[in-house]
Design brief:
Elements lengths: L6 E3 L4 E5 L2 E4 L2 E5 L2 E2 L15 H14 L4 E8 L5 E7 L2 E2 H7 L4 E2 L8 H5 L1 H4 L2
Parallel strand pairs: 4-7
Antiparallel strand pairs: 1-6, 2-3, 3-4, 5-9, 6-7, 7-8
Organism: Sphingobium indicum (strain DSM 16413 / CCM 7287 / MTCC 6362 / UT26 / NBRC 101211 / UT26S) (Sphingobium japonicum)
InterPro entries: SNase_OB-fold_sf (IPR035437), Staphylococal_nuclease_OB-fold (IPR016071)
Protein name: Putative nuclease
């Protein structure tokens, strides 16, 4: 993701970490503007994380990934991860996770209000 240029990948080249994060060649890619349930093993204190909801969210993202995959980097987060809009088969994966109820919209994380513009139905919650 060097240089923050959109890149295309095959779904087989990606690993789904959880419902809002992928790894591409070892680099974490955080989906723009959403938060999915944390994997229970990584759950922070005082945060609600259930094994079932985190697994469902991760599996939902996994099932939605289909070629071609396009990753459009937007920024880096406080942890140095690439924050990106990820399209799979032409669909915005953040919008899909919101539509399915597998993530929640975080307006403060929606840089440039891109998701608010692309997936209006899902960001009005």
């Amino acid at each position: 993701m060097q240089g923050m240029i959109a890149a295309m990948f095959l779904a087989s080249a990606l690993t789904v970490v959880d419902g809002s994060m992928l790894r591409v060649n070892g680099e974490p890619i955080r989906l723009l503007g959403i938060e999915a349930p944390d994997i229970a093993d990584r759950c922070r204190k005082r945060k609600a994380c259930t094994r079932d909801s985190s697994r469902q969210s991760r599996e939902s993202l996994k099932r939605a990934l289909r070629d071609p995959i396009t990753i459009v980097p937007v920024a880096r987060d406080a942890y140095g991860r690439t924050v990106a809009i990820v399209y799979a088969g032409g669909l915005n994966m953040s919008c899909e996770q919101l539509r399915k109820g597998m993530a929640v919209y975080k307006p403060a994380w929606d840089l440039g209000r891109r998701l608010a513009k692309e997936c209006r139905f899902a960001t009005k919650r």
